[in-house]
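Reopening this ticket.

The earlier resolution said the output was attached, but the attachment link was broken on my side. Pasting everything inline this time so it's all in one place.
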Amino acid sequence: MDDCKWSKARYSEIEKGLLPFLESIGYGQKDLIFVPIAGLQGHNIAEKVPSGTCNWYKGPTLMEILDDVKLDERHPEGALRIPILDKMKDPALVLHGKVENGTVRLGDKLAVMPHGNPAQVLQLMDAKGVPVEFAAPGENV
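Inline output:
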């Protein structure tokens, strides 16, 4: 926004241009919040933009919006979900991820999605490299 001098017309033009695309990929207007920000000065990221710079935006900052996002509950007894963050071969395949839902235990037989390749948990280590018997939601393994 600093490049266009905090122009309300430019902000509305961007919002109007993005809205049809975002709706076409499945987002509804209730799912979207548009926030004018200036990365160079940090305006409206953590602190509100000075009123002398932009007097037409009275909404929340980006950080206020992120703080209010409702997260899904994590269920230890639910279906196992571990997004894979990193992998390496040493000599077996080693995967790193965070347990988002469910509980993983040594010996569990799993399917690696999206292809459904079979896998088995032969060793399980926490984020510090200490072997553990199981990992619950929120833990990095």
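Reporter confirms the inline version is readable. The first helix runs from residue 8 to 24. Strands lie at 84-89, 93-97, 104-105, 109-112, 117-120, 134-135.
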